[in-house]
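Sharing a chain and its predicted structure for anyone who wants a worked example. Both blocks are below, sequence first, tokens second.
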Amino acid sequence: MAGERAPEAPFPVFESTDFSGEGDFYFDLVRLESRDDIPRGFPHRHNYYHLLWMSRARGTHLLDFQPYEVRDHAVFFLSPGQLHAWTSSVRPAGYVLNISTAFFARMFPRADDIAKFPFFHLTGGTPVLYLSRAQHDALVPLLRAIEHELLERQVGRFDIVRSYLLILLTQLRRLHPAEDAHPPGQGLALVKRLGLLIEAHYLEFDSVGRYAETLCVSERQLNEAVRRITGMGASQLIQQRIALEAKRLLCNTALQVAEIAFRLNFDDPAYFARFFKKHTGCTAGEFRRRYHRPLD
């Protein structure tokens, strides 16, 4: 399959958004029911943070090749670069929040700040919350307040929006099952920091020891913490991230499989082929054919 190429057109990438008519993209919000072009059933990516608040919806969301149920009171969290597509058999209602990386960096200037929010972890994170009706209804006023600030366009509106959004995300963090699964002091913070480090350096760091050194712990301490929290070793987390990038390149570029292998620092394409099949259960060519089509 090394010589197989994908169709010429890659998946669309949305670089910015301007639902609110601000002109320059910084933060954007729109009601799902006001957009005929949402949901988008074709795989695509955003180069900004993307939050889908589904008050009413029913269908499927494919997020980085994992299917999730779309239903009433679901909240999906996407980080820049994630590949997704979703459908709904009923006209959806709710909100889309698009958050530029600049806005996000202003909210969370340190990596440890982002690590507090489990739904933004690309490595081992859970990108969806299924709220009860009561939980959903209790938080909707925050979304309406954000919407009001954007519509009024008063001086300092983004400062107020940032405050409302931080409250919203903090409330959602409290509802996230990961917050109760592991008591503080059992390595959870270390594993979160590792996830952020993997995202930044998975092609640069060539050993678990490099990550441990950067995190100022021993390799044994790191592996013990990761295994206690996730049930797997640190090397498995790193390999999962590399496999995810391979999936994205297969579906979003026309690169040959051998070219993808070299881009991911595999000297031997045959070894990459074995690595990919081990992590996905199929060959690279089979994976490319399976996902290069709209979501049914």
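Comments welcome. Confidence is low (pLDDT under 50) at residues 1-9.
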